[in-house]
Specification:
55% of the residues lie in helices and 6% in strands. By secondary structure, it is mostly helical. A two-stranded antiparallel ribbon has the order 1-2.
């Protein structure tokens, strides 16, 4: 399974929105600048996230985007499926025997479990904790 830039950048947008502790709207321009990503590409990704009911837009001088529901209620799996489509490990092949297909199914279930058990809140908190060094 390969996660494309759509999925990776989409997660970046969502994590940035989740980190807005006061839930102020955040512009794509700011997200693009902070993460050194192309703003035009982020604009293409925000539509499916909005249509999927994960974000809403706020108009005005201080507008931008906000999460529709709390970050703890959004999973990485929702985001990835919304942007990437259904998860597949390998293309179905008649050449694969039953043993290999069983393995592919186990791998798919494991990946889906991780994605569906990891919330956006988990991702937003994890990176901000950082490392602490004691001397």
């Amino acid at each position: 399974m390969k996660i494309s830039t759509k999925g990776r950048y989409g997660l970046t947008i969502m994590i940035a929105l989740a980190r807005e502790t006061d839930n102020k709207p955040l512009s794509l321009k700011k997200i693009a600048a902070r993460h050194e990503l192309p703003e035009h590409y982020l604009e293409q990704l925000i539509g499916p996230l909005r249509n999927g009911g994960l974000v809403k837009s706020v108009r005005g001088a201080y507008g931008g985007y906000q999460l529709v529901k709390p970050a703890k209620e959004i999973t990485a799996g929702e985001i990835i499926r919304l942007l990437e489509g259904p998860l597949t490990i390998v293309e179905d092949s008649e050449a694969d025997d039953a043993v290999k297909r069983k393995l592919w199914d186990k791998i798919k279930v494991a990946i889906e479990t991780v994605l569906d058990e990891t919330t956006l809140a988990d991702l937003a908190e994890e990176d901000t904790n950082g490392y602490m060094f004691y001397i």
